[in-house]
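Q: I'm writing up a methods section and want to include an example of the input and output format. Could you take the sequence below and give the corresponding predicted structure tokens, formatted cleanly so I can copy it straight into the document?
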Amino acid sequence: MKRRKMLAMMLAAAMALPAAACGGGGDDGGNTPDTPAADAGGGTAENTEAPAEPAGTDGGEESGSTGGIQFPLAEKQEINICAQARTLHTTDFDEMPFVKMMEEKTNVHVNWTIYPETSWDEKISLDFASGNLADAYMTCYGLDAGTLTGYVQDEMIVPIDGLIAEYAPHIMQKFEQYPQVKAAATSLDGHIYALPRYEYDGNDIPCFMYINQKWLDTLNLNVPTTTDELTEVLQAFKDQDPNGNGKADEIPMSCIGDFSKQDYSFFNAFGMFGIAPDMNVLVVEDGEVKCAATTENWKAACNYFADLYEKGLLDNESFTQGETQLTAKGSADVERIGVLWGWNATNYVGSAYTEDYVAIPYPATEGYQAAM
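A: Here is the clean output for your methods example:
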């Protein structure tokens, strides 16, 4: 019973705000979504030590209620979560704006244990072997079915489907909207042991476009809203020395050309022209599967970026460099990059320049506005 209260509080705290998708928005923004993908994104580990029971509160405008638990809690509570960190992740979890906001709204503090993705499998295996477990585990890539089944059989991971039904209305809403997501998260025994990852495929671009707002302010420029305006801004970045060091060392636009890095490669920019190919460079038009490179939109995108390349506005190493090289440029002693793509600008520009970059809507091309 104590363990159930602990898990209920954890799940309710996580769901006090609408569930956010890992790969796209939870709402379709007016578009008709394709079939989403799902996997088991994390797990809830058994913990026999429970905190004090949460107390209710009147809350006011900023409060919320989930499954009878009122937020923010009257008495501060703590939970322990072990999370997987990407190789280029540089921001402390406690410093993330979303984490701070959630703690303020719930009065629940998370004690984070962070394992790098390069040693994630080894470290969580040691955790489960020793029995020294966090309350929950959070990973970008999920656990493979065999590993998850083994932990379930050893009774080290407990089912959470009953808790989801009682305390997670936003997840239940998505399960009803996309029953295939619930099916993907449900084990053979009929129970759910991990919150699923939900990827909305109705967007054109699965990552963000970041622009150097500090440079825009220095040059008294506005955020570009069209591809023509983007070209003008990039030209100004190249010619007008926005980093102020007296050298022509600015890189107006840089990126990674590796298409296997679909979430943040250069090819995301093709979404500005209505091309959102999968990793096999395929698109579906009028019910017919086509090679994206044969479409007029693809050709228009190639012409646009060829023009940027010819003008020196697109990094000439964009199609050969990897994450390490891009990060070296973005986090150098002098700020050098104007525009880039990714989940988080911090991954490529480091903590020193993070505040200078803002995510912007993808600029529109003639007759088309990309959807995020």
